[in-house]
Design a protein that fits this description.
alpha+beta, six-stranded antiparallel beta sheet, 3 helices, about 50% strand
Length: about 130
């Protein structure tokens, strides 16, 4: 028996998957965390892993970064981290801040977190194009 909506959800999902596969973009999960104590960086982590399946979503915006021959995505992101963080800041950034005051000693700790999310990444000869997927 056929549904009343004409199976449109399956049709649109199929079209989205085919258009993603035809563009040649790979999907990666990328996350970032920076922890500072008293305004000095103490821990910084970039997590980059290739998605096992294409992410079922549409592109929102793109960022193009310069790439050297045979340079990995993680190396590009670490080199261009300021640009990438500014690109992702409006979406889902979380900042946690704590301060402790003991007598005349003040200790602060801030953590900036970009939650891991899926990006479409297309490698070109001299650049990488990254698209946010939602």
């Amino acid at each position: 028996m056929r549904s009343r909506n004409g199976n449109r959800s399956i049709l649109f999902a199929g079209i989205a998957l085919i258009s993603t596969l035809c563009t040649g973009a790979d999907h990666y999960y990328i996350g970032y965390r920076l922890t500072t104590q008293n305004a000095q960086a103490v821990h910084e982590t970039f997590s980059v892993s290739k998605a096992m399946q294409p992410c079922p979503a549409s592109e929102l915006s793109t960022l193009s970064l310069r790439r050297f021959p045979d340079e990995s995505l993680k190396a590009v992101l670490e080199r261009e981290k300021d640009t990438f963080i500014e690109y992702t800041l409006p979406d889902a950034t979380r900042i946690k801040s704590t301060a402790r005051f003991l007598d005349s000693d003040a200790k602060t700790q801030e953590t900036l977190t970009l939650p891991t999310q899926c990006y479409a990444v297309e490698f070109n000869d001299d650049s990488v194009t990254i698209s946010v997927l939602k």
